[in-house]
Amino acid sequence: MSDKINKKAIISVADKNGIVELCRELDRLGFEMIATGGTHKLLEDNGIKAVKISDYTGGSESERVKTLSQRIAREILETGEIGLVICNLYPFFDQQGKSIDEMIEFVDIGGVTLIRAGAKNFKKVGVVYDPNQYADIVRALKEDKFNEEYRLNLVRMAFDYIAWYDTIIASYFAGEFSDRIFISNAAKLFIPMRYGENPHQKAAFFLNPIQQGGFKIHGGKQISYNNLLDAEVAISAASEFKDDIAGAIIKHQTPCGVALGSNQAEAFERAYTADSVSAFGGIVGLNRSVEPATAELIIKYFFEVIIAPGFDDRAIEILQAKKNLRLVEIAPDLLEGTNQRSVFGGILVQDKDTGRPGDWQYVTKRAPTDDETQALKFAWKVVKWTKSNSIVFAVKGRTVGIGAGQTSRVGAVEIAAQTAANQGNIVMASDAFFPFRDGIDTAAKAGVKAVIQPGGSKRDQESIDACNEHDIAMVFTGMRHFRH
């Protein structure tokens, strides 16, 4: 393997952190340096000798074409006369609230070309894009370890960098995913993790830099992979009730309890008492900024994460009394977009489930009462956030029993009924139709008075007849809410 590179470097950096220190070391190591305008001025101002790129190429240095030179390309790609490329790109990923004409000017062309060229000719050239690499680059050069194997590792990182950069640009200009032929995720390492779902699995949280400012953690121990999975469901379930004050407590990606309240403290307490046993160690989601009165209630119990669109300063002080409790502040726009899941090494993509049923179809002799109707609307919003097959038992503004993730729908009814024992005026929501009447018969024994379900089974009439026999009101929505 070749261990040596030519001691000529081209330097073009938007992020100038650490570049003066790096170039001072390169100067001591005998490198000739070629630099673009802003970088060249910075180096000269700090007493570091460098050739301005327009003087080196004999061309004009307009902003758009300054590094697009045949001489530069040849000396990187063919001869390796330029042995070191130090380049990072216009910060397209940092821009907010700009017009499309303004964003166009942040699309880097020459920088991507430099990095790609240096990476392609790694047998003769080293390519560096991140200020965090600088110290190790200097060490490797001084210790004669900047060899082909070392440069190949730089190539792996460089190609990741430019692929990520191009993906951010593609995402900005993209239309609906259903109109796209290619799709990728413009995520960048955001939160390293000790492990994944289990201790033997490696994991990390990657997030588009444009979105990273919308995810803040106010203390607590390091957030985990499973915490994040549950936290998304917790805030999503609570946020389902945009016109009400709501709280949700989640474990294993399904609700233990969801409730509304006249104030936030009441909403939380009602969600907790819906199933206080299962709530232990859960994730709390609230759809309003966390208030001190709510925080005082929360710290009485053991939870892993509190997630909300904001936190009152006093609420943070109260909650931070529990040193391990993670407090996550989330911007509402992070709940928008699409659902993406990895399968077979590919990506499944779909719209998020924001569907709302149209007119309900009243299919039984008895229509639901006004109170039952309110409870049914509530239960229908909750059931979409439970794992299918799923059943939700509820009263007005509060769940009283949830059976989720079952292979049998009647089994889900039985589980929900166990928690809902001794409750009155119960309604039931099912995320999909009942294939047999046994689910209705079991619900009737548990005291269910009204049912909401999509309908659509060949045996719908059996379920309707069962409801009529038990004096249960039932409505069809024509829409199911599977969540796998």
UniProtKB/TrEMBL annotation:
Gene3D superfamilies: 3.40.140.20, Methylglyoxal synthase-like domain. The keyword Ribonucleoprotein does not apply. Its EC number is 2.1.2.3, 3.5.4.10. It comes from the Bacteria. One of its GO terms (cellular component) is cytosol. InterPro entries: AICAR_Tfase_dup_dom_sf, Cytidine_deaminase-like, MGS-like_dom, MGS-like_dom_sf, PurH-like. Residues 1-129 form the MGS-like domain. One of its GO terms (molecular function) is phosphoribosylaminoimidazolecarboxamide formyltransferase activity. The keyword Mitochondrion does not apply. Pathway: Purine metabolism; IMP biosynthesis via de novo pathway; IMP from 5-formamido-1-(5-phospho-D-ribosyl)imidazole-4-carboxamide: step 1/1; Purine metabolism; IMP biosynthesis via de novo pathway; 5-formamido-1-(5-phospho-D-ribosyl)imidazole-4-carboxamide from 5-amino-1-(5-phospho-D-ribosyl)imidazole-4-carboxamide (10-formyl THF route): step 1/1. One of its GO terms (biological process) is 'de novo' IMP biosynthetic process. SMART domains: AICARFT_IMPCHas, MGS. It catalyses: (6R)-10-formyltetrahydrofolate + 5-amino-1-(5-phospho-beta-D-ribosyl)imidazole-4-carboxamide = 5-formamido-1-(5-phospho-D-ribosyl)imidazole-4-carboxamide + (6S)-5,6,7,8-tetrahydrofolate; IMP + H2O = 5-formamido-1-(5-phospho-D-ribosyl)imidazole-4-carboxamide. Keywords: Hydrolase, Multifunctional enzyme, Purine biosynthesis, Transferase. Belongs to the PurH family. The IMP cyclohydrolase activity resides in the N-terminal region. This is Bifunctional purine biosynthesis protein PurH. It comes from candidate division WOR-3 bacterium RBG_13_43_14.
